[in-house]
Input
Amino acid sequence: EAGVAQSPRYKIIEKRQSVAFWCNPISGHATLYWYQQILGQGPKLLIQFQNNGVVDDSQLPKDRFSAERLKGVDSTLKIQPAKLEDSAVYLCASSQAAAVGYTFGSGTRLTVV
Amino acid sequence: QKEVEQNSGPLSVPEGAIASLNCTYSDRGSQSFFWYRQYSGKSPELIMFIYSNGDKEDGRFTAQLNKASQYVSLLIRDSQPSDSATYLCAVMEYGNKLVFGAGTILRVKS
Output
């Protein structure tokens, strides 16, 4: 079974620029999550999709972050404009049955300078 | 949001010893609990999950759950240097969302 694919692996941008991250979940996994992990902290949920609908985006800073999941498969997370405090690893995860946990992708490490 | 607390460590154990990692959670209604391992620079990988009070064993790993005390632990027997990583405790919230603790750094010394 192929894993969760994410790209790019690394991104360095200047503050106030925009950036986008892409995620392709495991085939057949209906639920997709985006997490933010700041160095030294645990992952924090940004947004949860079920198929192509948003289930929970209560912790997504909507003034600068947006996400979509077209056709219930791939997803894109965008930040515009970026701030220094957005420097983190952005993890995508998917699950078929959340009761047995998620599978994470390799993440995108974002550095905002 | 519900809270998950872990001692940040680092926890240092000699090779071959038992490593004990602990986690407490704030939501008494939580029903399922997960342990993830995260190597430096890598993404979290699921080690095991537990739903019922008591112990659950999988190879060298044992998860222990005490819902009355709101306490979850992970025991690693015969610790190896390759077990050195950050261990994340996670609790499933209503709506199938995992809430993570900050993680405990484990160092196994050879």
